[in-house]
Amino acid sequence: QVQLVESGGGLVQAGGSLRLSCVASGSIPSINDMGWYRQALGKEREFVAGISTNGIHTRYADSVKGRFTISRDRAKNTLYLQMNSLKPEDTAIYYCALGGSIATTPLYWGQGTQVAVSS
């Protein structure tokens, strides 16, 4: 089993920044693309950003391109999401994901961390 623990969420004003972290532990597979998803109240969970096992390849949802940056520290088994120029519509629970097809059907999920952006 793989455990994913997110941190770094909080309340921020529009235009502000937050950095989310996700620490992975347990039986981490050798191929372990990772990513971030989010779910706003009353909406379906959506893909936000993904990064390949080697950290070279990244992809983003159109809604966050140019504002969010995904990165990872493989030595620390940690995934990051730097969120800049935050908007009220970014308010959601953010989930870390690992494995599988990261942009569509990840294998493992974290419990989520709340991000709230006030206008």
Topology summary:
Elements: E1 2-7, E2 10-13, E3 18-26, E4 34-39, E5 46-51, E6 58-60, E7 68-73, E8 78-83, E9 92-98, E10 108-109, E11 113-118
Parallel strand pairs: 2-11
Antiparallel strand pairs: 1-3, 3-8, 4-5, 4-9, 5-6, 7-8, 9-10, 9-11
Detailed description of the structure:
The protein has 119 residues and is mainly β. 0% of the residues lie in helices and 51% in strands. The chain is built from no helices and 11 strands. It has strands spanning 2-7, 10-13, 18-26, 34-39, 46-51, 58-60, 68-73, 78-83, 92-98, 108-109, 113-118. The strands form 2 sheets. Strands 2, 4, 5, 6, 9, 10 and 11 form a 7-stranded mixed β-sheet that branches. The termini are far apart. The relative contact order is 0.32. The model has no long low-confidence stretch (mean pLDDT 97).
Concise description?
With 119 residues, this protein is mostly beta strands.
Task: Flag low-confidence runs.
Answer: none
- Could you tell me the radius of gyration in angstroms? 13 Å
- How much helix, percentage-wise, in residues? under 10%
Number of strands: 11
Shape: globular
**What number is the mean pLDDT?**
97
- Helix count, DSSP H or I runs of 4 or more residues: 0
Quote the distance from N terminus to C terminus: 40 Å
What are the secondary-structure elements, in order, as H or E?
EEEEEEEEEEE
Give the structural class: mainly beta
Q: Approximately how much beta-strand content do the residues carry?
A: over 45%
Q: Describe the largest sheet.
A: 7 strands, mixed
